[in-house]
Amino acid sequence: MPIIQWQESYATGIQIIDDQHRQLFQTINELFDLIQTDAALPQILGNLDFLLAYAVNHFQTEESFMAESGYPDLSEHHDEHRRLVERIHTIRARFSTPEPPTPLELSRMVSEWTSHHIGEVDMGYASFLKRRGEA
Ligand SMILES: [Fe+2]
Asked: What is the pLDDT of residues 41-100, one digit of tens each?
């Protein structure tokens, strides 16, 4: 059963961003599936490597939209992206230690990313672009 479910309230209305967000949801759900089924470490690390690379590329996509449109909160948004990437790095590193992240820690990271970042912060620039008639 998926840990996070895409919902219409997450839609920014910008096709490429929404497609990338859906892929992120899918990868995170796969990560939880791997953990719940006690998958081997290389599989979990492989998922996290993909998640990291995909997230970095996705954040660049968002930031280039923001830069092109002169979005005033780009710098704060960039800082949140940087913190999210650091958290995924930290989580990935901890899987190779005797104290891997607990499901609760992972759920917290995921919910901060989805409910807070996608559900609230990303909506900020989505409405900005819409107001400017660019989305
Ligand atoms: Fe974002």
From this structure: 999 999 999 999 999 999 999 999 999 999 999 999 999 999 999 999 999 999 999 999
Please give the distance, rounded to the nearest whole angstrom, from the Cα atom of residue 97 to the centre of ligand 1: 30
Q: How far is the CA of 51 from the centre of ligand 1 (A)?
A: 15
- Gap between the Cα atoms of 118 and 131, Å rounded: 19
Let me know: does 77 contact 121? Beta carbons within 8 Å.
yes
| In contact, 1 and 105? CB cutoff 8 Å | no
Residue extents of the structural domains in the chain: 53-135
Please give the C-alpha separations between residue 102 and each of 17, 22, 32, 68, 129, in angstroms, as whole numbers: 29, 24, 11, 39, 38
Place of tokens 């998926």: 2
Q: Which two tokens stand for residue 34?
A: 């791997």
Please choose, from the candidates 105, 65, 121, the residue with its C-alpha nearest in 3D space to the C-alpha of residue 97.
Answer: 105
Residue 60: both structure tokens together: 């660049």
